[in-house]
Every structure is written in C-alpha cells, then in structure tokens.
Amino acid sequence: MQLITKCGIKLTSDKFPNREVKYYDYSASYIISQVEQSLKNLNTDYIDVLLLHRPSPFFNPEEVARTFDHLTSSGKVLHYGVSNFLPQQLESLQAYTTAPLVTNQIEISPYCLEHFENQNLDYLISKKIKPMSWSPLAGGELLFPKTEKGTRVLNAIKKVAKELHEPNIDKVIYQWLLKHPSNIIPVIGTGKIERIKTAVRSLDMEMTLEQWFQIYIAALGKELP
Ligand SMILES: NC(=O)c1ccc[n+]([C@@H]2O[C@H](COP(=O)([O-])OP(=O)(O)OC[C@H]3O[C@@H](n4cnc5c(N)ncnc54)[C@H](OP(=O)(O)O)[C@@H]3O)[C@@H](O)[C@H]2O)c1
C-alpha cells in the first residue's frame, strides 16, 4: 500500500475566516505545513507520493524543488508528482527537481477525453510517467447519467458489457482505462469494499480494440476522421 496525498490549494471555509478567496500556494512554508498536516492526519512518518494539486499562475519551480529536497532529506516524502498539469508545466518543474516526477493525476474517463485530445497522454507515454486518472467513473455520471452525453456513453459501455457477458458496468469502465498503453492508474472514489473488490477484478478482463473505440467514439460524439 502506498500513501499518496496532494498539497497547494488554499480553500475558503469556516475554518479560515480571514481567507477571502480560494488560491494556490506553493511556497516552501505552505508545502511543508501541508505535509506536516498530512502526516498527522494519516498517522504516518512518511508519505509515498506528494502531488501538487493544480498548476498555478504564480509558481516558482526553483523554490518547489528546494522544498522537495528538504522533505526528501528529512525522510517525510519519498516521491513527487503533479496533478492537472499540462506537459509544459510539468517540464518546467522537472527542469529544477532532483528526482523524476512519478505521476500526473489528471481527469481521464470515457466521459472526459481531454487528455487524449490535448496530447498530455502522448507526452506522459514519451516520458514513461504513469498517469493517475481522477473521477474514472466521472464521479458517478457514467453509472447514473444526468446528461445526454453520459447516457450516450453509458449505452456504448452497456453494449460492450453485454458482449463480454459482464454484469458490472464499473469493471468495463476500469478495463477501458487499464487497457490504454499509457498505464493509467484509476483513482477510484468509492469507499465501499465490495466496489473496490470489483474494481480490482477488472484487471482480469479484456476488451477488444474495437470495443475500446466504440466507447471512445460514443464519448467523442462523432466518427473518427
Ligand atoms: N486531482 C484532482 O484535481 C482531483 C479532482 C477530483 C477528484 N480527485 C480524486 O479522485 C478520486 C475519485 O474521484 P471521484 O470520487 O469523482 O471518483 P469516481 O470513482 O469517478 O466516482 C465516485 C462515485 O461513483 C460512485 N460509484 C462508484 N462505484 C459505483 C458502483 N459500482 N455503483 C454505483 N455507484 C458507484 C461512488 O458512490 P459510492 O461512494 O456510494 O460507492 C461515488 O459517488 C477522489 O476521491 C479524489 O481523491 C482528484
């Protein structure tokens, strides 16, 4: 088991009455304070992977890299990654960090094709960086769609599930992610043990390339050129 957590977003809430807006903070002091808080919350001595939650318009990669080195030498963090970064933003940080960044946690699902289309996945493949996919089931939209697009994609997934004699729709969605050559690691949102077990079993199934594309094309909403 590995512990992975994120840092960098300052939220507004009743806990922070003096904070007027939500903003991002990648200063050394804030990253370190968030790590200390995570160690406390998770009751652990170290974090396996620390992610920067979102790219920021105010970002000093040199300061972040120095902070990573400090956290590494104190034994509090083993590896680093990013989340929601585009290739150039990842490169900019990587140019300063000692250790290679190990992941980019991005939204990927049969509902969200953004990172297939903006070449982020091609970039991660070229760097041999495994992406993590947040909201792999589109936060439930793919199981209980509220939009026309969600219904369209679910129908394609159901068709493939029927062909594979697979009663679990979620397994088919996870397999769609796992089949991709970029080695996607789904970050599943459920805390229900039976659903987690089902997710693990999706490693044992396979779909054909044509079935993968049937789901992709349903999400795209048009034929490929
Ligand atoms: N990096 C980022 O910017 C970012 C942004 C958003 C999220 N995340 C991360 O990604 C994680 C996953 O996101 P997510 O929660 O949107 O994930 P998700 O797995 O796409 O959706 C989870 C939702 O689907 C439901 N669900 C799962 N399996 C189901 C099943 N078999 N049948 C019916 N409902 C099912 C869950 O309900 P139950 O709980 O009832 O099972 C939950 O409401 C989050 O916990 C967070 O750590 C990261």
From TrEMBL:
Gene3D superfamilies: NADP-dependent oxidoreductase domain (3.20.20.100)
Source organism superkingdom: Bacteria
Recorded GO CC terms: cytosol
NADP-dependent oxidoreductase domain segment(s): 5-215
Recorded coiled-coil stretches: none
GO molecular function list: oxidoreductase activity
Pfam families on file: Aldo_ket_red
Descriptive protein name: Putative oxidoreductase
Organism: Nonlabens xylanidelens
